[in-house]
Amino acid sequence: MSDRTTSMLAQPLHRPSLGRAAAYLGLFVLGAIVGVAGALVQSGLFPGGLLLALAGEAGLCVGGARAAGSRGGAVAPAGGWMIAVILLTASRPEGDFVFAAGSGSYLFLLGGMAVAVICATLAPGRQPDGDAVRLGK
Q1: What is the pLDDT of residue 70?
Q2: Residue pLDDT, tens place only, 67-95
Q3: Contact partners, residue 61, CB within 8 Å, separation at least 6
Q4: Would the CA dihedral through 115, 121, 126, 131 be positive or negative?
Q5: What are phi and psi of 91, to 5 degrees?
Q6: Can you give the three-state secondary structure of the chain, one letter per residue?
Q7: Sign for the pseudo-dihedral over CA of 96, 100, 101, 107
Q8: pTM for the full model?
Q9: How far is the C-alpha of 8 from the C-alpha of 45, rounded, in Å?
Q10: What is the pLDDT of residue 1?
Q11: How far apart are CA 42 and CA 54, in angstroms?
Q12: What distance in Å separates the CA atoms of residue 27 and residue 113, rounded to the nearest whole number?
């Protein structure tokens, strides 16, 4: 059977090209930067800062998905955001912390994770090349 007649799920996975891998790495780093910036903005300008931080994350995830043309473009910045924010939740031995124990911080953490999941779920998946008809017909 040729690749054109089999389902996309039945086709073997291929490594991404070097350019695509670099784009995903760049989106991952941008996600971490947006996470750090959002953590600083959300408490300073509550509630507008919280909405701005979550909108920035959503914009990056949706933009990354559109630019990459796949869900990986949304997952990469979401992963960077989550890792950066989780690292910022830990307090230092000196007693410094970024997130206070308030409703805004919890809304940022949980709302940001929800935004990341929503954007990654709604991002366009890989589509096969060819006619715009149903597969298998």
Answers
A1: 82
A2: 888 888 889 999 999 999 888 887 777 76
A3: 31, 74, 77, 78, 115, 116, 119, 120, 123
A4: negative
A5: -85, 155
A6: CCCCCCCHHHCCCCCCCHHHHHHHHHHHHHHHHHHHHHHHHHHHCCCHHHHHHHHHHHHHHHHHHHHHCCCHHHHHHHHHHHHHHHHHHCCCCCCCCCCCCCHHHHHHHHHHHHHHHHHHHHCCCCCCCCCCCCCCC
A7: negative
A8: 0.75
A9: 46
A10: 46
A11: 9
A12: 17
Q: Could you tell me the two tokens for 14? A: 């291929």
- Furthest-apart CA atoms within the chain: distance in Å: 65
In the block, residue with structure tokens 């990354």: 64
End-to-end CA distance of the chain: 15
Name the residue among 43, 39, 119, 41 with its Cα closest to residue 75: 119
Token pair recorded at residue 25: 């790495």
Question: Residue range 96-103: average pLDDT?
Answer: 69
Which tokens hold the place of 73?
Answer: 């473009």
* Residue whose structure tokens are 């939740």: 89
The rounded percent of the chain whose pLDDT value lies above 90 is 23
